């Protein structure tokens, strides 16, 4: 009899947990949170519940977070997750603050990124190539629909997340051709989507393939390459080649240039202060290129669909 009662109580607790997590997930979706944010916050609430936290008691939650052997970033994520939970149920609390120690950004070699692109499965490989060429956030890439891709003009339209700005980016013919093949063989649940709806699945598959490649190629640096690393790599390289921080800001979709300025430092660290005697400009189309050419700028190179022009600083004249 006692055993039966315990089993009944345990079953009830499991059912209640599932209900809480389902309602919380649905609430975050309705509020417009990015898929990656939803996954993180739901997982944290699930962990807190498994560890006996009483979600109806904010002080209990505060104590439970404090006693976890988590880094400050994880603890602050837990605070944010519980704050969202309280917003859902109409509660309030005096949240603790955990100062996040910002880690240095790792910028891999392009050859290492290409090793991952060439060594992973079709969908993972295309996902990585999109991140490399567009600097999209992982959630933005995962949410791509087929009507966001212009196969005639080699253009991908990025719908923003995290309150950033939308972007329209020209990509390589190679990427467009690979996307065309994916469209032919795709078997995702929603035929309008390029990738599946579960970001967690995409991340799990990539992590496993990356680990295998790192071991095969005997290069543990590959394990440091996360999806967001490709965004950092793109922005650092773009600033290095263009010296135009406003252009980098537009490419990333940042509303505030403060978030973009770090790539100046990263470019200096990884590439040095090359070509400082030159003034560098970028042109995304013919209309932008003509006044530069007329002012004496010469084409130096191209990067991800834009032309890069430069001129010795001693010869710089105002360009309208």
What can you see in these coordinates?
With 320 residues, this protein is mainly alpha-helical. It folds into 3 domains: 2-89, DNA polymerase, domain 1 (Orthogonal Bundle); 110-227, Intergrase catalytic core (hpI Integrase, Chain A, Orthogonal Bundle), CATH 1.10.443; 235-315, no CATH class. The chain is built from 13 helices and 6 strands. It has helices at residues 2-30, 35-50, 58-67, 72-89, 110-119, 122-134, 138-142, 173-185, 199-217, 227-242, 245-252, 262-271, 286-294; strands spanning 149-150, 155-158, 167-170, 278-283, 298-303, 306-312. A 3-stranded antiparallel beta sheet has the order 1-2-3. The longest helix is centred in the N-terminal third of the chain and has 29 residues, at 2-30. It is globular, with a radius of gyration of 24 Å. The chain starts with a helix and ends in an 8-residue tail after the last strand. The relative contact order is 0.09.
Q: Provide the number of structural domains.
A: 3
Uncertain stretches? 1-12
Strand element count: 6
The overall pLDDT average reads 89
CATH architecture of the largest domain: Orthogonal Bundle
Q: Count the DSSP helices.
A: 13
Rounded to the nearest angstrom, the distance between the terminal CA atoms is 87 Å
The oligomeric state of the chains shown is: single chain
Annotated CATH topology of the largest domain: hpI Integrase, Chain A
**Rg calc:** 24 Å
CATH class (first level) name of the largest domain: Mainly Alpha
Query: Reading side by side through the largest sheet, how are the strands ordered?
Result: 1-2-3
Largest sheet: 3 strands, antiparallel
What's the shape? Answer: globular
Give me the secondary-structure category.
mainly alpha
Q: How much beta, percentage-wise? A: 5-15%
What's the SSE pattern?
A: HHHHHHHEEEHHHHHEHEE
């Amino acid at each position: 009899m006692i055993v039966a009662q315990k089993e009944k109580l345990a079953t009830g607790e499991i059912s209640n947990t599932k209900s809480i997590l389902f309602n919380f997930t649905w609430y975050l979706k309705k509020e417009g949170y990015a898929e990656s944010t939803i996954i993180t916050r739901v997982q944290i609430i699930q962990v807190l519940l498994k560890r006996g936290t009483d979600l109806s008691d904010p002080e209990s939650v505060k104590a439970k977070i404090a006693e976890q052997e988590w880094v400050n970033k994880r603890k602050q994520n837990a605070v944010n997750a519980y704050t969202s939970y309280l917003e859902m149920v109409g509660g309030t609390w005096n949240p603790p603050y955990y100062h996040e120690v910002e880690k240095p950004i790792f910028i891999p070699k392009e050859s290492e990124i290409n090793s991952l692109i060439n060594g992973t499965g079709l969908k993972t490989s295309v996902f990585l190539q999109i991140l490399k060429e567009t600097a999209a956030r992982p959630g933005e890439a995962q949410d791509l629909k087929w009507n966001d891709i212009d196969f005639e003009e080699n253009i991908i339209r990025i719908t923003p997340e995290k309150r950033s700005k939308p972007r329209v980016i020209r990509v390589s013919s190679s990427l467009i051709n690979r996307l065309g093949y994916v469209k032919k063989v795709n078997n995702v649940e929603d035929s309008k989507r390029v990738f599946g709806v579960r970001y967690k699945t995409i991340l799990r598959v990539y992590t496993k393939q990356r680990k295998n490649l790192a071991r095969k190629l005997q290069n543990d640096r590959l394990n440091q390459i996360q999806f967001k690393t490709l965004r950092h790599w793109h922005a650092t390289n773009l600033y290095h080649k263009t010296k135009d921080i406003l252009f980098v800001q537009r490419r990333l979709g940042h509303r505030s240039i403060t978030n973009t300025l770090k790539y100046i430092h990263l470019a200096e660290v990884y590439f040095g202060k090359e070509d400082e005697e030159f003034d560098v400009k970028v042109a995304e189309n013919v209309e932008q290129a003509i006044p530069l050419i007329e002012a004496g700028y010469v084409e130096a190179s191209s990067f991800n669909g834009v032309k890069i022009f430069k001129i010795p600083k001693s010869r710089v004249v105002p360009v309208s």
